[in-house]
Amino acid sequence: MDSLPLGEEVIQKACSIAMEAHNYPEAPCRVENSPSSSDVFFTFPGSWSVADWFTRLPFGETKVDPSKLLSPKGKDKVATSLRSIGRDELATVNEGFWKRLEMILANPSLQSEVEKAIADKKQIVFTGHSSAGAVAILATVWFLENYIKPEITRMSPLCVTFGSPLVADFIFNHALRRENWSHCFIHFVMRYDIVPRILLAPLSSMERELEQILYLLNPKPLFPSQGSTRVASQFYQTVMRNASALTSHAACQLMGNANPILETVASFIELSPYRPCGTFVFCTGNGKLVVVRNADAVLQLLFYSTQLCSENELEEVAERSLNSHFDYQSELRERLKMQNVVHLDHLDGLPLSSNGAAAENIATSMALNELGLSTRARLCLRAAGEQEKQKLSNQQRMDRKKADIEAGLAMLEDYKSKCAVCQVGYYDAFRSSKDEDDFKANVKRLELTGIWDEIVEMLNRYELPEGFESRKEWVELSTRYRRIVEPLDVANYYRHAKNEDTGPYMDKGRPRRYKYTQRWREHALRMPVGSSAESSFWAEVEELQLHRRTRPGAFEEIRETILNLERKLKEWIDGEHISRDVFLEGSSFTKLWKSLPQQHKSVSCLQGQINS
Predict the structure, then answer these.
(1) Which one is catalytic: 22, 174, 187, 325?
(2) Which one of the listed residues 39, 169, 193, 428 is annotated catalytic?
(3) Does residue 130 have an active-site annotation?
(4) Active site residue 325
(5) Buried b (16+ CB within 10 A) or exposed e, 467-479
(6) Pair 276, 411 in one domain
(7) Does the global pTM surpass 0.90?
(8) Catalytic residue from among 81, 84, 130, 272
(9) 221-235, 344-358, 568-582: the lowest-pLDDT one
(10) Residue 192 and residue 317 in contact, taking contact as beta carbons nearer than 8 Å
(11) Residue 558 belongs to what domain range?
């Protein structure tokens, strides 16, 4: 029998205090810290105002501000986790929920309670029901950004939500999986609960109904609502219609539909940016708990598990979509004892019907039936599984190319050593390209370019597992590649005078493979953006040489640039990020430096290096 990702006692406790928090709307954050317990629970009250869900049209979304995730003690750093490395794009989050977290963090009490729990070596659990679940998700990310460090704690927090709306986009989920944080998030969703689906629809399509629906969902309404069944039916249909458009579009992408009409149609329809993250546990209502980790599959389930069998069911299902939002405590109390849990891990092999299920898939088939999944829904889940499988296959194919990359780099490093023996750096030797060894180096450069362009393009299209970007061996290999090969690309660029037509290498000519691999290293080592630019050193030298040739008497125009380059070069040399062949007598840099005014050279931090 499969089991849940965390213990029954923690789930029950989290659900209980998450529901109880609604009784204290004046308390932005409540802490449950019993001396006899090894767990500390942080929970938040829900919000039932439209303005707290949608701050703007169409979906109330905003780009995340990484600096707002930092605690006061970490303001000198930049939080960079919630972004795409390849596209250098920040994640999108719901602005209303994000502002609620900002308001909570403005009071130092949360931080002090968290640090007390860390000092006591207790398991930290962020939890919330309804919109409070969204705040709990963001609070957990705040904790992960600030406290999961060797010098503070290695104990990952838990985030347990019940009926939470979606809170962020695809990049957010991608970042959590890349950082290996996704396992911290567990979300319970009742089959018919409408709240986890609300943000799949734009505000413009449901503004009137949403205000009434949130009033109905408020555990403490002041007056009974009239006509709730009609409002619930209209609201349910609106949300499901928008969810249908989104999941259909997502399914077409999963199945590799490259028809340009698809994107044309999508440009006319407002599709929600929000996507699931973490592990979802669907409560079927008939005794089973279905665990799903694939975010693409979760998105499809959020739509297909709430489908009507006939139009006659509309009012009944619409009412259930509201009532079930407050059934988590009673539902889980019964289901957790039964531990009837099914994990949908091998999506690519899901049975398309209950009749054709193999013996080992009977439990899975029954769970799919209890979620009311049609053959089309199962095909969508299969497509999500196939994509996941393809990503792993792509990773294995790239891993097999490591040997070719390492052999190519070894050949170029040998070429570099030979050039140094001749008292000319390999950059200048390659720039002049007079010998056969230079030609061979160029062939190898082009071979490696093909491999790395393929890798970077796959990462840019998210065709590799998210964890690929966090693999230390690939970060190190990409850095080694960038440091040895980019100088050759710079030399080739200026040898063919491409700067005259295109502009400076750094502005117009630098390939994406180097921009990406630089950001990759900076992210892995939590370095400031742009601080690992050692491989593009020669591009700066070329532009400074050009300035000296065209404006020899205008040193003051480039004085600060020269000082900055000298300082960085000294750091790179000391850190062995750039080799000392830049100081050889025939080096372009040495010639540039010697052309500088004597007054500058006499106080330069490189004076001793070059003279020796």
Answers:
(1) 325
(2) 193
(3) yes
(4) yes
(5) ebbbeeebbebbb
(6) no
(7) yes
(8) 130
(9) 221-235
(10) yes
(11) 399-602
